[in-house]
Amino acid sequence: MEEGKRYYRLGLFVFVALLVLAAILFILGGRSLFQPTFVFETYFDQSVAGLNVGAPVLFRGVPLGEVTEIVTSYVEYEAHLPLDQRVGYIVVRAKVNVSREQVRELEDDIDVLVGKGLRAQTQLAGITGQQYLSLNFFDPEKNPPLKFEWKPKHHYVPSAPSLTGEIIANVQHFLASLNAANVQALAQNLNTLVVNLNRKVEQLPVAELSSEAVGALKEARVAINRVNAILGRPDIDLALHNIASASGRLDGLLADKAVKQTVDNTAVFTDRLRKLAESGELDRMVTSINDVAQRIDALVADNQYDVRAIVQDLRATAGNLRTLSETLKRYPAGALIGGPPNKLQLPEKSP
Question: Is residue 144 part of a domain?
Answer without folding.
Answer: yes
